[in-house]
Write a structure and sequence with these properties.
The protein is mostly beta strands. It has a single domain, classed as Methanol Dehydrogenase, Chain A. The chain has no helices and 34 strands. Strands 2, 27, 28, 29, 30 and 31 form a 6-stranded mixed β-sheet that branches. A 5-stranded antiparallel β-sheet has the order 1-7-6-5-4, with no helix packed on it. Strand 32 and strand 33 form a beta hairpin. The protein is globular and about 55 Å long. Pfam families: PQQ_2. It comes from Halostagnicola kamekurae. InterPro entries: PQQ_b-propeller_rpt, PQQ_rpt_dom, Quinoprotein_ADH-like_sf, TAT_signal, WD40/YVTN_repeat-like_dom_sf.
């Protein structure tokens, strides 16, 4: 058993007391076919009205379906650094709710940070290093399997007792995580295992919609397989083979929207029917797709090698002619989250240059603003909140807030 250390450095925000809307318990009621990408199939995103002035970002890539599409508005104009906090190790992409950001750090601890002041509230040591997942009543971290913590002080509520699990997703009162070849589902209230799925090979990521769990496994260096299982029974439904090379980070995630998996298959943009497993190539490019695609309002944004970012209509497969991306903006190094009709793009403009975060109108491709960061390592995130962006600086061991 890993020894744990908890330290509380300041009082819990009084604004958090009495919060009633749990992110992990709010599920959508519409069918798969009602979602066009502007609302996540993942569903577990909480109430925007009760998630504090900053909004919420409850898990990596925002929701269980890995859409990276959020309602938060982000900064309207060019932001400046609001604060940064330095850790004794590289931080993960942060999640946030009720005015608090939660982050895993490579010192094998998890930290709660006051978003308004940039101060540490508490830290909790598990010996693991993963992006947390959160509801209004629990923080889920990797440790003894999945561990549930109290948001106010970091005290442990329960531990599932598995080996350490990663890729934490929340869906319909269950928190899911993966080991090498298993995906486990754990009841958020009791910590008891309610689902166990064994797959064909090593798991790299998975996504969940209202009925199914889609798991990407790595068969060899460039060959992957997406395997689909019933969320209720865990029974195998279908698999689909794809190939891809990863030129940037965030390339192994894939969104599920409108009952379909959206994935890259080398130079091809492919959709897979969630019920039947039937794949369809909707567009082919001259260059490889570099990182994971993003989709909103039935438009797929496809980062390509050598500074291209075409927008493709998901139904027709045609490029949208009114969409323009400036190739001089730089090479895209992370998938582009979408918040309130704005794409957030990490781009690099040369070996000697740092990374630039660019806000782009998702309808036209017009640039709204850009922020020159001090990042010299690999970009990750960003986490988009109301009028604020959070991102990790892996080389500087910092969590940075810009506003």
């Amino acid at each position: 058993m890993v020894d744990r250390q908890i330290s509380t450095r300041r009082r819990w925000l009084t604004a958090c007391v009495g919060a009633t809307a749990g992110v992990a318990t709010l599920a959508g009621c519409a069918s798969d076919t009602e979602n066009d990408g502007s609302e996540a199939d993942g569903g577990e995103t909480g109430s925007e009205e009760t998630a504090s002035e900053y909004g919420s970002w409850p898990m990596a890539h925002y929701d269980a379906a890995n859409t990276a599409v959020a309602p938060n508005s982000g900064p309207d104009s060019k932001p400046e650094e609001e604060w940064s906090i330095k850790f004794e190790g590289e931080p993960t992409t942060p999640v946030a709710s009720n005015g608090v950001a939660y982050v895993g750090v490579r010192d094998d601890s998890y930290y709660a940070v006051d978003i308004s002041e940039g101060e540490t509230i508490w830290n909790y040591q598990t010996g693991e290093f993963e992006t947390p997942a959160i509801s209004d009543t629990q923080v889920f971290v990797s440790g003894e399997g999945i561990e549930a913590l109290k948001p106010g002080n970091g005290d442990q509520i329960w531990a599932s007792g598995h080996e350490p699990l990663s890729n934490l997703r929340i869906k319909q009162g269950v928190v899911y995580g993966s080991s090498d070849r298993h995906v486990y589902g754990v009841n958020t209230g009791s910590g008891e295992e309610v689902q166990s799925i064994e797959v064909s090979s090593s798991i790299v990521s998975f996504s969940i919609d209202r009925n199914r769990i889609y798991i990407k496994t790595q068969q060899n260096k460039k060959n992957y397989q997406i395997e689909c299982y019933s969320m209720e029974s865990g029974n195998f439904m279908w698999d689909y083979e794809i190939q891809q090379s990863n030129w940037g980070h965030g390339g192994l995630k894939f969104p599920v929207t409108n009952g379909r998996v959206i994935t890259r298959d080398q130079k091809a943009l492919t959709t897979i029917d969630g019920e039947t497993g039937e794949g369809r190539i909707i567009n082919e490019f001259e260059l490889n797709l570099t990182v994971s695609v993003s989709v909103a309002d039935s438009v797929v944004y496809c980062p390509l090698l050598i500074n291209e970012l075409p927008a493709v209509d998901m139904e027709s497969g045609e490029r949208i002619s009114d969409w323009e991306w400036d190739p001089l903006a730089g090479r895209i190094n992370w998938r582009t989250p979408i918040a309130d009709s704005t794409l957030y793009v990490w781009a690099s403009r040369g070996v000697s240059s740092g990374f630039v975060l660019i806000a782009v109108d998702s309808k036209t491709g017009n640039q709204k603003w850009e922020y020159e960061s001090q990042l010299t390592g690999n970009p990750a995130g960003p986490t988009i909140l109301k009028d604020m962006v959070l991102f990790p600086d892996d080389y500087g061991d910092r969590l940075v807030a810009i506003k």
